Protein 1
Amino acid sequence: MSAIGVHFGYTCACVAIFKDGRADVVANDAGDRVTPAVVGFRDTEQIVGLAAKQGRIRNAANTVVKVKQMLGRRFDDPETQAHQTETKCQVISKEGKPYYEIPARARPLPETWPDS
């Protein structure tokens, strides 16, 4: 029997595979077995993991951190409000739900659709 396990924490994420009676945490492209749960946005690209975490100082308004703290919460939830003081990325309300507003993505991006 084989299985996969995903850990999505407040600050990091990792994936493990159980196969042939043993578990192995999968390394990312940098060789690390734990990846920071951080996403940074630029005009045309998304940066994830350690590179996004390291770029947070230069790109704070476009860097999303600690997403798990807001999953399933309303915008007016005290936890959501507290999170807003911890991030430089603007959190806005859409129909009562919290959304990150990403300045780097303010202009419309071209949309691509899979072939039918």
Protein 2
Amino acid sequence: MTANTFGIAVCTTSAVIFEVCNAIVKYIGPRFVNLPKNKQQMREKISEFESKFGMIQAFGCVDGTHIPIVCPTNHSQDYFCYKQYYSLQVQAVCDYKGSFLDVEWLWPGSVYDAKVFSNSSINTNLRSLRLPGTFQTITKNKIKVPCYLIGGPAYPLLPHCMKEYSTCKKNDKVIFNSMLRTELNPIECAFGRLHVGKF
């Protein structure tokens, strides 16, 4: 479509788009897509998330999306996703405003969210405490709660990744699940903006 619009060959268009995307990732991306670099920035993200949603110690939400691609010539079955098209699996973390903090896009479309997350740099950094974490004591037993992400149903439940109850009939769990779904809105809206008219 872009090639037709500008009257150039598809291969030329692909090369130019690839070059522009690499330049954006290398030079512009780090200015706008970045995780908190120190404890103060992390506290700000946590405070903003709590003010908007009421969840203590969450600093962002994580989810995956599929970016459609042309069928690859090699290993095409790896890129065929459950939505019945060829794609790249993209995982992103965003803050309460829907601003991206971290993005990973190296996985073929057939890979599930949980596997992408378990192999992601954000998971490694949170697990090994490489991010500037903050702890808050919120229980009578003086248990320190680490900062964490809100993940969708496909994500694992971990000390640094909260997800909803898979089955619940008790009112308090239903309320908790409802809160958690609301807290996933920023990442869903961010992906919505990303997809509108782009892919």
Protein 3
Amino acid sequence: MQTVDVPITATVKIASKATSVQGGTIWTVPGTKPMLPEYLEVRYDNDVSSEPQREKVTWDRVAEDAYAKDGSFKVKGKLQGGAEATITVDVCSVTSVAVPERINTASGVFPELPWNVSVATSDGKTHNAQVQWDYVRPSVYTGEPGQVTTVSGTLFASGLNGYADGTNTGLTVQTKIVIQGVEKAIDNGETAVTTKAGTAPAMPSKMAVEMSDGSVSTAAIDWDPIAPEKYERPGTFYATGHVVGFDAAAVMALLDDDGQKVGVDENGNVTAKVTVADKKAKKVALQPEAVVVNTTVGSMLELPDAVSVYFSDGSARDTRGSLGGIEIEKWTDTDGLDITKPLAKKGTYKLVGKLKDVDNVNAIVYVNVSEAPRTITKLEAKSFSVATGTSKQKLYAQMPKQVVATYSDGSTDLLDIDVWDLSNVTDKLLSETGTVEITGTVKLNGAKVTCNVTVVDQDARTPDHVEPIDVIEIADNAKVSDLMDHEGRQDQERDAR
């Protein structure tokens, strides 16, 4: 019998091993289920790419008790490829949110509301959060100087990937929008405009302005119509307009090479020099409009990584477009601010950034740093008594609607209660004398506060009259010790009787 060798090919798959799995810490407030990330980054030992892979993760179930009160816990999960993951969840009440109490703006200009903010919490840590602001009606930021309107937003606790997988805390953040008159306009080069023959010039829609309190905002520019024949052929012409909301003596306009005033005069009138280049000329970037950032002392500064830039040929790189704006490569002037550390002092600062592949203009950012918001240091609910046999429904009706908050600056305020938790209060507890601790949630920040309710015997005797107190006469410049001695003598006389 003849033996035949038959070749067999086998494919052996070598299991790859995860060398690193994305982890970290997220946070939430008591009673709010944390939003765990749907995907995590993972690297395998056989990866040829320098970039990590993103894999879907299935998390273990999280019990409600885990996030019911302040504390910390870990959650385990498994990635699609089999690797294991762990994430830490901090559960903590919010004591302050780094949102300025007031944000100034010029009439007609949408206020620069902070969206990425720092949050101080009951565990002594500082966490990142985002604010999703409610719709701001034009009437809020349009009107006479002095108009004040409160706007609100919802606070999201940052996830591992920021806002994308953040937890909706359900907490409300507020600030006041204040319309102020423009006292000084700041020309950072926006009034030098270049266009190509036949292309309508891209005139700046707004410019930086100084407000009455020294902070910087932006104000709209209302340009006069520009006739098409002015930019039909190469040359120069002057465009005029007015800074909206201008109400004070301001900036001295500058003389250009032809003796023409350009910039903003003392009445808020704007004159821009427009250079019309040949159609074949290389396009040049126009000075980007200034960006304004409002933040507070103690916060990490969140600066833009790109700005919108318009070009002389009519094209643009807009931060809101699919291509995005032009990247800011580095900050060449930070006006004395250490942008790598929490902000140390209030004031207004001008930052200059170098744009990638653009040499003739820079990014300009004004940072308004206001005082850090006051922090809640103590919450107190007024204690009270009920008779034995009181129903839970009647007890809830008597629970305080507000609690007293004490702040870091020594001030106090009344804060509304969202809900009192009576789930652990039983009829048995209310049928016996003693003290019942009931936990409530503060509406403003989700913080927990305890109210002590004393259950007293409903048959306890009550006084049938109140004995009057003798009139106490206090002499001028009397001391507290004199008053105490007087009370002591009265007590002795009553005892003798």
Protein 4
Amino acid sequence: MPVPGHQSLPLSEIGDYRHIQVERAGLALGAFINGVDLSSVQPAAVYAEIADALWRHHVVFLRDQALSAEAHLALASHFGAPEKHEIFQADTRHREISILENDAERPPEINVWHTDVTYRERPSL
């Protein structure tokens, strides 16, 4: 479903995807990925297309996804080896999954944001 203010591009400009639909989020960067249910582990071709969209658009948004821990780790493993973050709270069964909470009782820790560990000399991605 198109989002007001967002521009869809012809496939020739965004890639020829067979497993996902990609819609540009803005003129500078970002894209919405639709047409895929990541609630279960998917074939490698699906993750390869998501990775391609990330490289092309620098940021991707996957809306309305209810990921199991296994599906979350399967997706993450296509971008590097999942690992426990040294600062953030982790899931009790899957230490590689960080728990980020942001509500009235748990405001965001704005001084500790880089969950992607891009500050490291050799980040995962």
